[in-house]
Amino acid sequence: MNLPWLVADVGGTNARFGLVTEPGRGPGSVAVLAVADHAGLPEAVAAYLAEHADGARPEAACVAIAGPVEGDRYRLTNAGWAGSVRDLGIPHVELVNDFEALAASLPHLPAAELVGLGGPAPGHGVKVVLGPGTGLGVAGLVPAAEGWIPVPGEGGHVTVPVLDERDHEIVRALRAEGMGHVVAEHLLSGPGLARLHHALALVRGVEAPRLAASDIVARMDDSLCAETVEVFCGMLGTFAGNVALTLGARGGVYLGGGVLPRIVERVRASDFRRRFEAAPTMSGYLAGIATSLIVSPQPALLGAAAWLGQRLSAAPKSSKPSKLEYA
Predict the structure, then answer these.
(1) Residues annotated in the binding site, as ranges?
(2) Acetylation: present as a keyword of the record (predicted)?
(3) Range 39-65 average pLDDT
(4) pLDDT at position 316, please?
């Protein structure tokens, strides 16, 4: 299918767009548009193509959505956009979840955009990406004859990964305030970091203002904020180890999302890796799995481009599309 191709990574706050103009190359002409400034996805796509892509008319696209997708239909979890990608008027559109696109990026990320957190170099086997942001996303990536296949999931909604007595005290404090079932996303996300800070204040019996995640990571000279980040990284290590064991992620575990790139050195110096390996009968297995933090500026766009290229190369060749196609 003729170039250019459109790629998009659409979240609740921002929609990121790029244009693939050469086979095997990453997207260019990247622009970030505010979701609130546009009535819907078709309007945002039209604005991007007109204002940032010289009026290009793409014949194919891959759109990654932060929310549920089914067939050609999507719904943003944290914004009002919903509808069908048929409304874009692009001949071939791949519609995926945002963490599917992030997973598809993993084999293509340059070493300079990864920070090692322990273990050997990443291998070729099954890979996993998880990321605290507005929620806690999880996806796998499985090698296959035709390339790499992303496997989406809802792993962020498993029961919270507690390990030591402090973890249990935090969960008990939240339950005492009415949170009956505490799941991983309740603590391992941007809002979760704020909830964790509040819970730790309850455990320590101290008065503390309600702080947003951005305020907590900016106040590392405050003992409660520093302990909050310490607990966050430790719980994340246990969660990542659980996911690695569940999927057999011998190809590596990657951390993405919007929270961690702001505290890279804190994560590296934290209890993350020790707790990642702290499975009594499987510590040796986990010790052989690489853990890396993604610091790429637009990894989901790279993944969307890789997935679209793979899908188009596997499709029957024809000179022109005979109808609109959606996957």
Answers:
(1) 8-13
(2) no
(3) 96
(4) 63
Whether residue 123 contacts residue 252, with contact meaning beta carbons closer than 8 Å, is answered with yes
> Virtual CA dihedral for 247, 250, 255, 256, nearest 10 degrees?
-70
Please indicate, yes or no, whether the overall pTM of this predicted structure exceeds 0.85.
yes
| Largest Cα–Cα separation, the chain | 70
CB atoms within 10 A of CB 91: 19
Q: Which fold has domain 111-294?
A: Hexokinase; domain 1 (3.40.367)
Residue 313 banded pLDDT, cuts 50, 70, 90: confident
What fold does the segment set 5-106+299-326 form as a domain? Nucleotidyltransferase; domain 5 (3.30.420)
User: pLDDT tens-digit profile of 123-147?
Assistant: 889 999 999 988 899 999 999 988 9
Residue set of the binding site for ATP: 8-13
User: What gap in Å lies between CA 310 and CA 327, rounded to an integer?
Assistant: 13
Under 8 Å CB-to-CB from 166, ≥6 apart: which residues? 203, 231
CB 209 within 8 A of CB 275: no
